[in-house]
Structure formats: structure tokens, C-alpha cells
TrEMBL record:
Record localization: Secreted
Peptidase M4 C-terminal domain segment(s): 345-519
Domain FTP: 62-107
Co-factor(s): Zn(2+)
Protein name: Neutral metalloproteinase
Domain Peptidase M4 positions: 197-342
UniProt keyword Signal present: yes
Membership in a protein family: Belongs to the peptidase M4 family.
Species of the source: Kribbella koreensis
Amino acid sequence: MTSVGAVAVLAAAGLAIAPAGASVRSAPLPASGFDQPAAVQSEQTLSAKTAAALGLGKGEVLQVKDVVKDADGTEFVRYERTYNGLKVAGGDMIVKRTGDGAISGVTYNRNATGVGVKSTKPTLSQSAALAKGAKAAGFKATGNQGTLVVYVTPAKPVLAYEVVTTGVKADQTPSVLHSFIDANTGALLASDDEVKTGTGKSMYAGTVTIGTSGSAPNFVMKDTSRGGNYTTDLNGGSSGAGTTFTDADNIWGTGAASNRQTAGVDAHYGSQLTWDYYKNVHGRNGIFNNGQGARSRVHYGNAYVNAFWDGTQMTYGDGSGNTHPLTAIDVAGHEMSHGVTEATANLNYSGDAGGLNEATSDIFGTMVEFYANNASDVGDYLIGEKININGNGTPLRYMDKPSKDGRSKDCWTTSTGGLDPHYSSGPLNHWFYLASEGTGAKTINGVNYNSTSCNGTTFAGVGRDVAAKVWYRTLSTKLSSGSTYKDARNGAINSAKELYGAGSAQCKGIQAAFSGISVPAGSAVC
């Protein structure tokens, strides 16, 4: 075998390879033995000094949300803010500290260096704001609460009501909708749903090993080795925790939808793989990076053709006719990654940020599928290709050419943010494919692809492992709730420089792929 052939085989196997001309560099790694909860507490004791050092305005108070630490001591501290006791929605920021504790950089969401407003006294009544929030929801509300906040718009901070409307949509999907109503004019500034929905494959993982606990005859579908991840049966219900699966002999399911345990096995296996992927590849200790597991609920509703993350847990429907549970590998990866996004950048589910949020879940759901290396459900760049949700054998989404679904966009434009997040995700999905595999025809795991760039350029990919590591670092250390595609480009290029070096082939490949989806050049260059 020639050396070129060897590289091609390794690339097809999904192994990390430095492209020709890549610089040799020790990439920043998570600090060994890093205790994230302790680091958060430690940084919180310094929050007042940090606010003073940054010159924040009177009345602004910092609250530490997350800390990421590299092996060289560099820290990225993510903060949220209050102003005169009011929550600041969109006031999140990231402070970069060197190993000696000095501040070496700060990233403000929407450039909100200051979040003060002229007055914290509204002219709009709370009841009027609640009515507007309920109307914006478009479903029968079972709960409707509002509180005053400072909302950071792209132009300036605004006093607003954050109205949280809960209920169930017509398709059975629950909703926890946050509507931001201008507390003086009554205008709807923005809305964001806590429940992030997605679809995927069902029951294609075959015979697998899952983490359980207990002993005969009372084995429990709870994985104590992965933070206590556990899986429950809603039995057609739409609320509550459900009943944790138990078994007498620790042999679960039959592979058929008629056996209630089968969907539980797939969901539990998927959460296990996702935990392992984030832990072993990115050094992340669970969704919230604190070692705590999460719950997966199966058999939700009646013939519910979807799955969702609601801020604390994964929930899966049984699909059309209650015969196709949406409980496969990339579904679990997709839904749990919504949780990772929430715990890091907390990208809004609207505008450009909504597309970045949804694409992030597609990216890491895809990576979990490749990571699993499961012969019954091989890795690919197709989303939902086996559930036949369209009725004609086509997948739900295509990462190599998103527009093939008839709704998603291949290329970024100034109007992309106005689309549903499942379609504005198209450009970033396209970026990930181009960054991973490059342009041109190729066959990967039996699937044919032929992706083209939006600007007509041709280039090689840097490998999916490199692209995923760059995007994870971007998500966890560069982006904030209102980030745009332009922010994503700058953040990814800077992350690639930190990981692989300025001028590296990896950085240039990441940069070329963003140009390839028509995101214009910004301040960051390789």
C-alpha cells in the first residue's frame, strides 16, 4: 500500500491525522484533575474584583456560570450579570485569564460592555406583558409568569418583562417559551423556547452493552459509572419522571418495538455513548461538566414523531404508529448536545444563534455516531436517514448539501437568521462537512457525497475530529447567547490557532470552510 493509500484508509476510518503541511503543536488540553464546581466557587469569590477590573458600571454584579481550564493554566470564565438586582438577559460574557490569574481578554455578548438602563420602573403593566407573552406563544397556556429584566438587544439594553409561558403545542411537543416584552412600548423584542426539538433514527444499534446497576432480580437501567444516567418509561404519558426500567436477568429488550424495553435500551445506549464521547474526546464530565448524569424518558405521548431536550432531560416519542421510537445514537447525541450548548454558550433559539444551536447538536450527534463505530448504525453525514420520516427513504437533513431537504440553506446570508433554527442550521452543518471532508466527490462508509462551496473554491478537509475539536472549543470558550455566524467564524479561527497554531493547515482549512459557506472575513485570520 502506498503512503497516500494508507492516509486515505485512516481518514475513512475517522482517525485524527494531521494534514500535509500541518504544524506540530501540543494542543491545549483540559487541566488534569480539574474540579469544575470548585473552580466556579473560587471564581465567584473574585467576581467583585473582576467587575472592578473590567470597569463595569455601578449596579452590575457578576455571577459565574462555567469555568474551562487548559493544562497550561489558562482559564475561560463565563459570567452572567445582574443590574440593580434584575437579571440581564444577554449580558453574558467570557473572561480569559492567564496562568497567573491576570485578565488577558474579554468577550461581551453583543458588545454589551455596559448594561445599565435609564430606569428600572416600567410603564407597561405586568398583566399587559403577560397577555402579550401568551399571545406570542400560540398555544393554550397552562402557566404564564413574568418578571422584570434588562434585555440586551443588538443596539442597546432595554428594560423588559421576561414572560415564561408553558403549555403543549398542537403536535404534543411541550413548550417553555420565554418572550421578552419591552416594558415601556410593549413590543415583542425576542422569544426563546427552552424545549429544543430534533429527530433521528430508531432501533438500529443491534445488540449492545449498557450500564446498569442493582442485582438479580432487581436490575435497574441506571448507569452509576456515568453520573447516574437513567432511563424511564412514560407509557404514553406527557409529564412526570416516568417509571425507571427494571429487569430480573439484566438482559433487556428484544430489538422489536413491541417490547417496551427496546426503546429504553436504545436511549440508554445513546446517552452512554454521548457521555463517553464528550468525556474521552473533549474532557467534559457530563452535560453540565459537573459529573452529574441526566434522565432519558421514552414512550412519550401518542405516535409522537420527535424527540426533545427540555433543559434537564431527554425525551423520545414512539414515532408514526408508535412503531418507530426515535431512540437511536445520533438522536441521543443531538439532544444531549442541546444540554451542552445550554451549559456553555447558551445560544438563543432564534436568529443566527438559533441556527448555530441546532447545527451544534447535528454536529455532535454526527460525531457520536462516528465515535460509536457501530456496525448496525455506521457514521454518516446524513441526519435521520433510516426513520423514513419523509415516506420516500430520504433523510431529514444533509450536512454535505443542506438545501437537498428543500428548506435548509447551504450558504449564509443576512436573512439566514430569520429562518426556523432547523433550517438556519444549514450553513453551519455545511461548514462542518466542508471542514471535515472538503469539496468534491467521495464515498464514506458506503454513502456518496459531492459537496461544493458557495464561493466556487475547492479545498481539502482537515478531518472530522479536528473540525469537531475546533467547534467544541469555540462553543465552550468563544460564543455567547446572541452570537452570529460572523462570531462563529472569528471564534473558530481563534480556536484553531490556539489548538494547532497560527498558519497551520488545520486553521487554514477551518477558515476556508467558513469562506466556503459565504461568511465574510472578520477580525480573526490564520
